[in-house]
Amino acid sequence: TAGTIGVMIKTTVYLDERDAAALRRMAAETGRSQADIIREAIGRTTRQMGARRLRSTAVGHGDGTPVARDADEIVRAELGRSTH
User: Fold this and answer.
1) Helix (H, G, I), strand (E, B) or coil at 8
2) Which residue has the higher pLDDT, 55 or 79?
3) What is the 3-state secondary structure (H, E, C) of 42-83?
4) How confident is the model at residue 21, as a pLDDT?
5) CB 56 within 8 A of CB 22
6) Residue 35 pLDDT greater than 90, yes or no
7) Among candidates 27, 50, 35, which has minimal Cα distance to 2?
8) Which of 3, 16, 40, 61 is deepest in the core (most CB within 10 A)?
9) Max Cα separation, the chain?
10) What is the pLDDT of residue 58?
11) ∠ CA(80), CA(83), CA(64), 5° rounding?
12) What is the rounded end-to-end Cα distance, in angstroms, of the chain?
């Protein structure tokens, strides 16, 4: 069975009749619970996706100097620029 880390969260999954029957049959044949089979399948699928990628990384403009110290001034300057 799949290992569980952390707190379990209850959720509801709707299956079509064919998948529900297959899940019941698999649970009966393997002696496992339907929930355990579903958790294992979800875990396997989510692990295949890999780590989350941040899509906004490195999309800004700049020369690499830290901006936190001057953030207010930078924002005022950027808001004052014309967008035309």
Assistant:
1) coil
2) 79
3) HHHHHHHHCCCCCCCCCCCCCCCCCCHHHHHHHHHHHHHCCC
4) 97
5) no
6) yes
7) 35
8) 40
9) 69
10) 56
11) 70
12) 60
Instruction: Write down the pLDDT at residue 1.
Output: 47
Q: At what angle do helices 34-49 and 17-30 cross, to 10 degrees?
A: 110
pTM above threshold 0.85: no
Residue identified by tokens 């069975």 is 1
The 10 Å Cβ neighbour count of residue 38 is: 16
Place of tokens 């649970």: 27
CA 60, 48, 46, 20 torsion: positive or negative? Answer: positive
In 3D, which of 58, 56, 61 has the Cα closest to residue 78? 61
Question: Which single residue is written with the structure tokens 């953030």?
Answer: 71
Residue type at 4? T
